[in-house]
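Catalogue entry: protein
Contents: sequence, fold tokens
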Amino acid sequence: VLSVFGRTAGEVVVGPNAHRGGNELLSAMIAVRCLQSILNPQHLLAIAACIELTIPFRSIDTHGQSDSDRLRERLSQTNEGFGIGADNIDLDEVVHKAVRLSNRDVAAFQSPDSALFVSNALKLILETSPNL
């Protein structure tokens, strides 16, 4: 899970000095831990990837890569590093599924229902500001 998120052991994941995505990282860690005796490593990789891509408000980096581009690179590295056995087509499909999930995750931002937008925006503020 750390590899999919581009993190390393010992990093601060929540709190004022944490990088964004601590909530999502912890969610993915719990999901993978709970499902590791039931699902194969490729499915666990896909779950972690889908959760990773729901980290909101990221932009294109200085190299012109989107968050999904960076995720695809990390999936390849994780796949090879841990001998998961997914091929390039499998990894591309994981990224496509993750993009679809992340788009649904922020769909309320384009909703004509302002109450839905405000409700989801407040949830994100609380999620990304633990001190509140």
Notes: The chain has five helices and no strands. The mean pLDDT is 88.
